[in-house]
Amino acid sequence: MLRFSTAGESHGESLVALVSGLPAGVPVDQEFLSRELWRRQRGYGRGGRMRIERDTAHILSGVRHGKTIGSPIAMTIANNDWKNWTEILPVEEGDLSKHKAVASPRPGHADLAGALKYNFREARYVLERASARESTARVACGALAKLLLRELGVEVLSHVIRVGKAELSRPAQWEEIVALSQKEEILLNCVDAEDEARMKAEVDAVLRTGDTVGGVFEVVVHGLPPGVGTHVNWDERLDGLLAQAVMSLQAVKAVEIGRGVTAAESLGSTVHDAIGYEGDDEDFTRFSRDHNNAGGIEGGISNGEDVLVRGYLKPISTLRRPLASVSFETREPVKAAYERSDVCVVPAAGVASEAMVALTVARLVLEKFGGDSLAELQRNYQGYLEQIRAY
Fold it and tell me: In the CATH scheme, what is the code of domain 3-389?
């Protein structure tokens, strides 16, 4: 089974990522890993931290001569800001007078709930791990999953649907999403320039008032054949696993597959994707759909259409104009603590969600098709595609 884990704190020495279960022989393009980490750092509305960090994954194990060797892959991503925190957050006992306490919890953050859970007198240690900085390590793990899927002709990318009240006014085409991912300047990762300008205006408006803004991103899995995931057990459904994976990211408060939200208020005759039989020999199957309202998943199983997963991201909970809170020490009313923060992170959340979606899909692909080497996996995968085409 493909597994991954992360470790590290926002202002610690480094982040750590561990991936196990990848077959041997997968080419590992380190420039691609760096590019993925770079994409997570970009976006209009990012804060000062992104001007400090230059995220690069340093691979310690599991890759030799540019390919995976079947053993666990360990990576570290250095925090450049660590030099400013070495005496504030030392591993050893250190000087407690230099500790930088989070004296009042921020509404919407893990501060208070985490402090209560772990019996901390303030929220510094909660903040350090709860921070979305952790998603950097997930992106590194997801990049490896993407490289595996790429060898099977499957790609995972994202784009932004909405920022605040500004929304994409038309459907996005796969080719447009690919072109977005290759740009050297990322604003709000929207396929339509006019809509992106309106999104940028939303960010500008909240920046002037010391507020933050959320939005909606869409992750697209392109090239996935029918049959990944299953209906037979509740915890093996593709849609359920994707929802959990994306919801696990910081600040994501809702997940939608396809037209999940508007489908709830629509008639079945306008929601379900009519089936035809008109494909050619190049398709996975000659069965086709007239739309993709299901988001590429029916009954917990991929159906051969693009898989569409939308994440709804709340506004960042650290505000330059803080909300009301309570002092941890005195219990008296105060303003919430302020830590250096972003105004809008919707594009970055999309990239992090790409990683989570890629890791989920890659795990299910490996479970279905097996193989200790890439060559073995590809043989099994191609055999299945032949079975589908011959159906």
Answer: 3.60.150.10
Retrieve residue 65's tokens. 């001569």
Helix or strand run (H / E) with residue 360? helix 346-369
* Helices (runs of H) and strands (runs of E) counted in the chain: 12, 17
The predicted-structure confidence for 126-166, as pLDDT tens digits, reads as follows: 999 999 999 999 999 999 999 999 999 999 999 999 999 99
Q: What's the start-to-end Cα distance of the chain, in Å?
A: 29
The closest of 168, 158, 157, 205 to 44, measured between CA atoms, is 205
CA 221 to CA 303: how far, in whole Å?
Answer: 12
SS3 386: helix
Domain ranges of the chain: 3-389
pTM tops 0.85, yes or no: yes
Please write the tens of the pLDDT for every residue from 231-267: 999 999 999 999 999 999 999 999 999 999 999 999 9
- What's the rounded Cα separation, in Å, for the pair 14 and 33? 17
Q: Which two tokens stand for residue 90?
A: 């030392």
* Angstrom distance (rounded) from CA 338 to CA 326: 13
